[in-house]
Fold this sequence. Notes:
Number of helices: 8
Distance between the termini: 60 Å
Oligomer: single chain
Shape: elongated
Structural class: alpha/beta
Bound molecules: S-adenosyl-L-homocysteine
Order of helices and strands: EHEHEHEHEHEEHEEHEH
Amino acid sequence: MTQTGTIYLVGAGPGDPDLLTLRAARLIESAEIIVHDGLVDPAILALARPDAELISVAKKRARHTLPQEDINVLLIREAQKGRDVIRLKGGDPLVFGRGGEEAEDARAANVPVEIVPGISAANGAAAASQIALTHRDASSIVSFVAGQCKGLSDQDWSGLAGKGRTLVIYMGVKTAPQIAEKLMADGLTPDVPVAVIENAARPNMRVVRGLLAGLPQLITQHAIKSPALIVIGDVTARDDRVIAQTAVEATQ
Ligand code: SAH
């Protein structure tokens, strides 16, 4: 009987191959089969062996995509053939990455699974834009939330943003108007500073800053596209020199 392979859920970080962990880079370089999503930068996929089988399960609207259950089935089927399978995901597999579901299904099928952490977009964006997520003078709490349409109005964000707190919103570009409204309805003042970081830790990164009430306009005015993060809180407005510099970048 063939021995079952292992499913490796591997975080690819925000895009720059230099931000992979050594473990992730070694697994990618030696993989026979890599199942990846659309957020994984081509520069990272380029590390794979020329004969590696690369399977994209990109979540792009216009293209045929694999539903999550089919991805889980694919991973398990390949591992049961005796192959080690690399499931490569943008950022960290366990932050809005469905890694939890894939790991649960693998365990239920008795397939060994190992999780390799990656730099999540929040950490990559913070470093690249020099916005501290926590700062002794400005914030001692940081929360990560998902801003996509589904269930946005059902999510309870009260208390997550405001004085002394940093809120990082993933997948919030499209719903920015509802997000700004929701936060102000929760009691935030319209003048809370915000930043939007597009393509963090990639050569085409842009950082734009403004105030909460103007968040939707900030996004439309600069034509910000996914992938981008929205950061809400005083930490986004700490350093005038960085702000001046990123304002120049944003207008280029
Ligand atoms: N598991 C990933 C998140 C997947 S959800 C992680 O840990 O980072 C997808 C969202 O992540 C995008 O909509 C965007 O909000 C954010 N994102 C991913 N890569 C990004 C990048 N390079 N720059 C800015 N935001 C990014």
